[in-house]
Amino acid sequence: MGITHRTTASYMPQENPTERANRTIKTLMSQTARDERRTWDEMLLEITLAINTAKSDSTNYTPAYLVQWRVLRLPANLFVECTPGTGNLQVIPVVKAEKLQRVFKIVQHNLQQVATNQAKYYNLRRRNWRPWINQLVWVRQHSLSNAKNYFSAKLAPKFDGPFKVQKFILPVLVELSAENTATLTKAHIADLRVHYGCP
């Protein structure tokens, strides 16, 4: 199928858009379930409708419109005598395809503008540093406290290493190897620091 499986770096939700979608779904679940925590699954159909009919700030269209080429009927429309866009108007396939192509071009343009604006504000705080191949680096650790083993994450070292940069998997994702071992690990360049000796 021409599919290439690529994994993301640990503790980098920015690389995975699914994490942002899960956050939206969990927020809607908590708002609809309220005190009935055991019946959250009964609201999944309503949550799905809400997400599919919400206009995206990035595309300026709803997901339902882009995928199904129609505006979904909302519960409020049931009380309206005439609901726009729900008739049996026959659309010629060629005309429909041309309209879809125009909409997709608009969506691509909107997404490019949003990405440019987001990159502009992100790069204001971003440091221009990239490690080179075979460079020694420290890697940020994401330790968790463990009272049973008398381990406190606050007192643990923030970085571990040194590790040697083996290759770039992506422009911001590197493959590392620990010294004197063949074990490989991955890390985002935001979690790396130059190895000068002590972290």
Structural notes for this entry:
The chain is built from four helices and five strands. The chain has 199 residues and is an alpha+beta fold. It has a domain of 59 residues: SH3 type barrels (Roll), CATH 2.30.30. It has a five-stranded antiparallel sheet with strand order 4-3-2-1-5, with no helix packed on it. Strand 2 and strand 3 form a beta hairpin. The longest helix has 30 residues. The chain starts with 16 loop residues before the first helix and ends in a 5-residue tail after the last strand. The relative contact order is 0.11.
Mean pLDDT: 82
**Spatial extent as radius of gyration:** 24 Å
Which CATH architecture of the domain at 136-194 would you pick?
Roll
Which range best describes the helical content: under 10%, 10-25%, 25-40%, 40-55%, 55-70% or over 70%? 25-40%
Question: Keywords, please?
Answer:
199 residues, alpha+beta, SH3 type barrels
